[in-house]
Amino acid sequence: MTTRIYADDIAIDVTRKKIKNIHLKVLPPNGEVRISAPKWVAKRALQDFARSKLDWIRAQQLKISQQPRATVPAFVDGEMHYLFGRPLTLRVEDTGRVPLVQRQDATLVLRVAPGSDCDTRRAAVYAWYRRELETALQPLVVYWQRQLGVSVERISLRSMRTRWGSCTPARRAIRLNLELAKTPLHCLEYVLVHELVHLIEPSHNHRFVLLMDRFLPLWRAWRDELNETQLSQY
In this structure, are 10 and 116 located in the same domain? Predict the structure, then answer.
């Protein structure tokens, strides 16, 4: 259940969860503020907490407002797309065939039937992104399951607006954002390890941090790099 509180002129959406600590987020692209809080914390306490963080909230909102907004692509000739951090220039070829996507050096070739609309081109490119992401994930999943001593039952790939990944420990299930196919491989690895560690420690407590430090010492730098990336609008 989500409710709304206010800290001065800032609206904050509050979600109650079975967690131990209060978590505060400021989300792109519009600087929305969200709090995840334990069910037992009183509304007044959450308002006091939010007011104590006003300077930080405003600083984050300013930072987000100064970031270049992601543009909605039309999947036409000359557009720049990315595969694991590497730029690819899109070339659209009207061939009259079933949609096909191939990478040729620094070019992403999209072959579609003449007159294909944006949705058709987008679907073809994202099907290709999905295949590339699945291929990149396979060795990483094998390696990190062995390193961490865990096993995951299911990894699903989907478009998500506000998260790079999520984990449901009870089901041993992980969700990863399709947009990770566009980020550097080490960012994908960071998100995967982050979610796999949740199979050992479900919360973001001190133990979780120690595990991340032990197995992935550069995780903070990779997290910060990823957080500088705006999730795509398409």
Answer: no
